[in-house]
User: Fold these one by one.
Assistant:
Number 1:
Amino acid sequence: MLGSGARVVRTRFGVDDDTCSGDHSCIRLSGCPSLTLKESSDPLKVDPVAHVNHSCVGCGLCGEVAHAAILCPSFYRAEVVQNPSAWDRFIARLRAGVIGWLQLA
């Protein structure tokens, strides 16, 4: 599909290290094998934080469980677009411009 030039969207999930509290309830409830632990980069956090490794297939189970139980606001969903259309490129430039403007304010 990539070779034909068609637009391909893959969903990936992740955990924001800064927001993760380290209680690991997401790992206990979802049972997802791609949810692992890693050392926190914050020296004030003693516990390791949750981490989504590269074996994630984007099924959404971890994020759905976290959202449904209101367990963890640290999950994020990202869509990886390959072979973007002109509209995708325009939206990406617009978002980058708005974010850049907000960072200056």
Number 2:
Amino acid sequence: MILLRLTAFFAVILVAGYDLSAQAQSASKQNYPAVIKDSTERRARAEREWRRMLDAYSVPQTPPDLYPITYTPRSLLGVTGGIKLISFTPEPGSEGVALREAVRRFLDRWRELLGAEPAAVSLVSNDGSGDTQRLTYKQANYAFPIAGNAGEMVAVVSRDGRLLQLDSRFIPVVELPSRPSLDRDSAAKRVVGRTFSYSDIAGHEQRTQVGGLDQVTVKRLVVLPVEKGDSTEVHLAWEIVAGKQLSWTIYIDAMSGQDLRVNQNFQT
């Protein structure tokens, strides 16, 4: 009798645990993909910060050029002559360091406008060309890298310390699954046999098929923002390259297996 009661007791625990697990999985699916919705409050805050920034650098007021939904600056359109970030002349040989420090201070000061979390932003490239430097920063506050140029800020600065171009594509942090439902091998198999179309140099449509797994490389898991009307969906995705001499990058949802985006990696 005692054995029967214990068996029944553990059976109830197992069933309850299964129900809780099923409920958790169901809730996870309902909340995925994460959605960044358009917000009048976010836009108003961005416009206010833009005006404050122009006033701080004694720049005549001009309407901001903002990305939709995130409302981060897309350019310095209308800002004649740029924004003076350095009011002193750096020592010879230290110009590059001074410019990087000036942009970092700018990023920290105007974090709300730029959508940045300064502690999670890193300088990933610094290209000098003539009298300007192009600095590219990447956001790293997700568990996985953000695909493409989303999560990125580009600042072009003149040698005398004027910010000439600004493009901030940082995105808000939203909750995503910590691991995929679709494993790497299954993701690769979804690409085999697919046919891709492209136009040759004469404008004629051509087709090529992915014949086997030897033509498929699953590169990594990424965070992929996808604009949908007045919101942005944030997906966990497999980044896959298909093809050899002619190749395409395919993004497949790592939870549902849905195709999210296909980029052609060559020009015709």
Number 3:
Amino acid sequence: MSVKKISRDELKAKLNGGEDIIIVETLGPKDYEEAHLPGAINIPHSEVDELAPRLLPDKSAQIVVYCSNKACQASPQTARWLDALGYENVYDYEEGKQDWIESGLPTESGTVAA
């Protein structure tokens, strides 16, 4: 599988257009709690098998995964793994959280009840 990529502008357009999209941060809980994209849920790349069935029950949902930046391999690994698990619409926001923050876009902090 080649991982489908999504740019910051494409992601913003989907969010601003009100599309039903699930955003997943693939970093660990500490990084997630410090700052994450608005509305994102946390599925660390090492816990996909355990958490995806519970947190992502709809395998046809639009899912965007991201990690720190282009050098980080957590989101492409997660995208490939979700594809292998049967998820149909997975995108990797390859530039990640660093790109989002450097562009002046808002983030949230703290935990989200799962």
